[in-house]
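Ticket opened by: R.M.
Priority: normal
Category: complex prediction / small molecule

The reporter submitted a protein together with guanosine-5'-triphosphate and asked that the result be attached to this ticket for the collaborator who will pick it up next week. Submitted input follows.
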Amino acid sequence: MGIYSAICRINEKLTSLSVDPDDHQPQISNGDNNVPPIVSFYNEEIRPILDAVENLRRLNITKEGIQIPSIVVVGDQSSGKSSVMESLAGISLPRGQGICTRVPLIMRLQNHPVAEPELLLEYIEKVVSTDEEHVADAINTATEELAGKSKGISNTPLTLFVKKNGVPDLTMVDLPGITRVPIRGQPEDIYDQIKEMIMDYIKPEETIILNVLSATQDFTTCESIRMSQSVDRTGLRTLAVVTKADKSPEGLHEKVTADDVNIGLGYVCVRNRINDESYEDARKEEAVLFQNHPLLSKIDKSMVGTPVLAQRLVGLQALIISKTLPEMLRKINDKLNSQLSELESLPKNLNSAADAIAAFMQIIGSVKESLRKILVRGEFDEYPEDKNMHCTARLVKKLNDYSKDLHECPESNHKENFLKDEIMLLEEAKWIGLPNFMPRTAFLVLLQNKVIGISSRPIQFINDVWDYLEKVVIQVINRHSEHYYQLQRCTCRSGENVIARMREHSKKQVKEAIEMEKWTDYTCNPEYMTEYNNLMANQSTLVEYVHDGYGAVNINGLGDGVQIGHLREYNAQVLNQAYDLKMRMICYWRIVLRRLIDTTALRLLFSINNLVNMELEKEITSCFTSPSFGGIESLLEESPSMAGKRAMLSRSVEVLRESKEVVSNIMDRISSY
Ligand SMILES: Nc1nc2c(ncn2[C@@H]2O[C@H](COP(=O)(O)OP(=O)(O)OP(=O)(O)O)[C@@H](O)[C@H]2O)c(=O)[nH]1
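Result attached by the on-call engineer:
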């Protein structure tokens, strides 16, 4: 027999067992031969299902994202929610006008043949033992602790366990009543906060909504009806409890039979305890009221009284549990499989030195291969989305920017103060001799000034590139060694060390290159002479332009707008020599810049190759074998985060396995009914 039809049979049997009108309590007694049929049936067939659910709750399976079917009590403020729960449990809960329930109260009633009821209040990490006399105060104290002393609410639930002889085995959640207008001490958005909390609880399909309506109210205007309808349009998981029947008996019969608000599971009218009445008296008064009241007695007996409500809830609870069991089992299986595969995907625990060495070799190999791909071969399939790791392209961009910077810096601007520096230097470098010889000192001083002017730029470039390379290397190392905490520390440190060393080496090379450019002027490049000759072809024209009084001219090789107005005071010999000096420098400066850029690029690539092929591995190995590292054994130690993750997953797998067992067993049992 299918599990659902089996439970339907149980439920039919439950509803067919009539409630004795003189049985004033929702009493479930134990083991006694005279127990009413509902009770023995209950004990035999429903109790095991509830025990199974209780086990699932104990396992805290909701933490694994699996919902446990429950009955959630909702209602407008002061509609009588807590009073209904009180009536079912036969204990006092905080009641009154204004907001009393300010946190979700999970009430777990368990029928047990104990001489004295046992009450336990659990919240956060606390467990408070209490009794019937003090439970209301204990709840108030816990509520204040969770939601503060004013009238605010909190999402953190309180769980009240009630083990008592004769209570129905039910688990219900009482939620704060819906209030539209904040009272003093309540936040302005109290309505939204309460609504959000209620919706979270009633949305899951596994929830039975117990909608508490006051007979004094027009049901069509009840906010709680609107909320439950928004998640349960057909009303098939909503049961209405109408409280305060004693206060407003007029028209109640018509209201519950007309069902204007579409309550799929029907109505049960009750009369709760008033003031200091005892529970026994309250039940008696309730029975008398629905038996004798001229208007209320017309309501069908299957729709009145707390015992009927208890019986309906117990049946519904069993039904919803059974309905959800197959789906729950599927979800548990899915979750179990995904947790197991995640657990398996975690790196193997290193148990021996051989394991550790193998892991070490594997990490070095992977780091080298990844770096070779991204830094040397320009393959970025391992980082398709992360542009920063498309290293060859990023390095080309850096090199281009460096070249642009050198070509656009003031030292490379040949138009500014045209011939001014050259004239001044020639003046200072004069010597006794023939006038048509170019003094070499003037050229060298001019060159030195320029080289000094740009000397910080290559160093800046080198630093920038090594900063970038360091980030890349560390990112790659971290990725490949993330599961091996100690090894990760050692490899990262090695990466940083080797890069610091190579950075210093590169800087030294660049400084040397700059110094060389400062002290020597040499090139074998024929372009120098070709360009020089081209530029010198304009020498006499320039002198003519100056003396003809031009302000700005176009000079071949320098372009438009070269200012020459300031040169009028100089004679042709000075101008010719200064022009010659300038043109030599222009041609040579191009060669200098090209040399600086080309050699920097070549050296950088050479360093990157060395880093990837040799240096990094050498450094890591020496760190790994150094006494300060702590030996191979230290590799066997797992990182705290990985150990935590492994423990968490193992716990979760254990809970899910146990839950699976619980659910499978109860499904087998139900199917055999
Ligand atoms: N006469 C009468 N009064 C009732 C009945 N049910 C509840 N009350 C009273 O209505 C008031 C509100 O009842 P509660 O049970 O505190 O209502 P609640 O919905 O839990 O209140 P909040 O959680 O604060 O929204 C209390 O004074 C109860 O005594 C009933 O059936 N008859």
